[in-house]
């Protein structure tokens, strides 16, 4: 009897000791986590100064002299939209889908963390997340997406700091202006333009549901790449809004049955590409890459877009006329004026030759101040980035005539003055003999100054 009692007592002592050891380990763990959390809070989180100076990347815009947009430069296609311009249903959908207790917590939702943790343990997998909108914003602004305990601690503590620095509406504004919605669209304004060619206030309820549906996966739920997935994501968002009390059953059923309607804008190279490329190089050299692509600059230039369009129309007409004239004079067998079309053959397997495209250049300056009013560097910026108006080392040719003839007029000559148009040869020291000629290689003898300016 005494032996049995002794064994029972020993077993009880072992259990009690094990419990004490376990409690001790748990205490040590909590002390370690507390110390680590404190250390992270003090040294590894963004400072309040950083939190108060959040500046998202904004694209640089180039305008002509009349304020017409010519070109945009950016790494993140982003336009900022103030909270007051968000449609009410857009904000309601965000809250219904991502954080229904957003206005009731202080950065982290302790109750939801407990509920989600219990569900994940029961299902033995990560079936749901507990990150609040503020936590997601802190991750976007300052952290990464690594699934580690330390990152989650930093995320939660940064969220608390954000809540101490900004109002709830300011956090929603930053979130919707910061999030990447796919297709190069950073922020809801860019998403509205990329997918619907609309501004944010113009978005319909269905449009907003598609955009909020992208939060779960911008590439997976893209309405452009995967329309069937986008419809399912939209309907899930609409159902969340219905459960949240933002839609009646009738409206929800009606919206859920609507087909997917998107209207992506037509991609544009931009106006006066040779000119705007010169502007890009100038900004890059003077202010740096970050300022060019992320600084949100508004650059007003001397270019006149109406004059630019007229110049392009005239130049394209002229070079097409010259190409047609060459085509009438020479056939495609002449290799000087023709070229082989790459990766093409005729029915007999022979290479196909066509007449070469003629390039051209044009620049118009304001004589009063040297402002560039129009600039063309070639027939197509897509085909060649070489700017013949500023990069070509060419003889001025007849472009110099107005200066010579103006000097003559200023010195008493008249337009009816007779000059001699005959071939001459000039010896230039250190260079070849100069033999000037007219563009048609003909000489006309005695002619008036007016005719000389023409030829």
**In the CATH hierarchy, what is the class of the domain at 77-256?**
Mainly Alpha
CATH topology of the domain at 77-256: Penicillin binding protein transpeptidase fold
Strand order of the largest sheet: 2-1-5
What is the H/E string? HHEEEHHHHHEHHHHHHEHEEEEHEEH
- Which range does the strand content fall in? 5-15%
Number of distinct beta strands: 11
Helix percentage = 40-55%
CATH architectural name of the domain at 77-256: Orthogonal Bundle
Summarize the structure.
This protein is mainly alpha-helical. Helix content is 47%, strand content 10%. Among the domains are: 2-44; 77-256, Orthogonal Bundle (Penicillin binding protein transpeptidase fold), CATH 1.10.3810; 397-454, no CATH class.
What does this structure look like?
The model has no long low-confidence stretch (mean pLDDT 84). This protein is 47% helix and 10% strand. By secondary structure, the chain is mainly α. A three-stranded mixed sheet has the order 2-1-5. Strands 3-4 form a two-stranded parallel ribbon. Strands 6-7 form a two-stranded antiparallel ribbon. Among the domains are: 2-44; 77-256, Penicillin binding protein transpeptidase fold (Orthogonal Bundle), CATH 1.10.3810.10; 397-454, no CATH class.
């Amino acid at each position: 009897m005494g032996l049995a009692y002794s064994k029972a007592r020993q077993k009880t002592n072992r259990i009690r000791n094990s419990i004490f050891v376990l409690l001790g380990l748990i205490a040590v763990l909590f002390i370690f986590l507390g110390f680590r959390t404190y250390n992270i809070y003090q040294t590894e989180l963004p400072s309040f100064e950083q939190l108060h100076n959040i500046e998202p990347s904004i694209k640089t815009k180039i305008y002509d002299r009349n304020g017409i947009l010519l070109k945009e430069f950016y790494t993140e296609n982003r336009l900022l939209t103030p909270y007051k311009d968000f449609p009410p249903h857009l904000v309601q959908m965000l809250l219904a889908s991502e954080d229904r207790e957003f206005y009731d917590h202080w950065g982290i939702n302790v109750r939801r963390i407990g509920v989600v943790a219990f569900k994940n343990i029961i299902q033995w997998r990560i079936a749901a997340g507990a990150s609040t909108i503020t936590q997601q914003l802190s991750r976007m602004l300052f952290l990464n997406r690594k699934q580690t305990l330390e990152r989650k601690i930093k995320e939660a503590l940064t969220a608390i700091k954000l809540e101490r620095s900004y109002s709830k509406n300011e956090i929603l504004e930053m979130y919707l202006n910061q999030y990447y919605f796919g297709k190069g669209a950073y922020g809801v304004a860019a998403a509205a333009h990329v997918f619907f060619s609309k501004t944010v206030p113009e978005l319909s309820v269905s449009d907003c549901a598609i955009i909020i549906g992208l939060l779960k996966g911008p590439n997976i739920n893209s309405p452009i790449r995967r329309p069937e997935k986008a419809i399912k994501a939209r309907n899930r968002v609409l159902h969340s809004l219905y459960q949240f009390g933002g839609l009646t059953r009738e409206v929800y059923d009606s919206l859920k049955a609507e087909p997917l309607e998107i209207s992506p804008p037509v991609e544009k190279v931009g106006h006066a590409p040779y000119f705007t490329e010169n502007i890009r190089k100038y900004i890059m050299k003077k202010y740096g890459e970050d300022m060019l692509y992320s600084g949100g600059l508004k650059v007003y230039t001397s270019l006149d877009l109406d004059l630019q369009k007229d110049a392009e129309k005239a130049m394209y007409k002229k070079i097409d006329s010259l190409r047609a004239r060459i085509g009438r004079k020479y056939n495609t067998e002449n290799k000087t004026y023709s070229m082989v079309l790459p990766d093409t053959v005729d029915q007999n397997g022979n290479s196909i030759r066509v007449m070469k495209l003629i390039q051209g250049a044009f620049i118009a300056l304001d004589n009063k101040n040297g402002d560039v009013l129009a600039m063309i560097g070639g027939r197509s910026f897509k085909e060649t980035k070489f700017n013949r108006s500023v990069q070509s080392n060419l003889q001025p040719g007849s472009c110099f005539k107005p200066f010579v003839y103006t000097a003559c007029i200023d010195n008493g000559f008249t337009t009816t003055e007779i000059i001699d148009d005959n071939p001459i040869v000039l010896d230039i020291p250190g260079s070849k003999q100069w033999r000037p000629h007219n563009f048609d290689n003909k000489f006309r003898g005695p002619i008036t100054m007016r005719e000389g300016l023409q030829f």
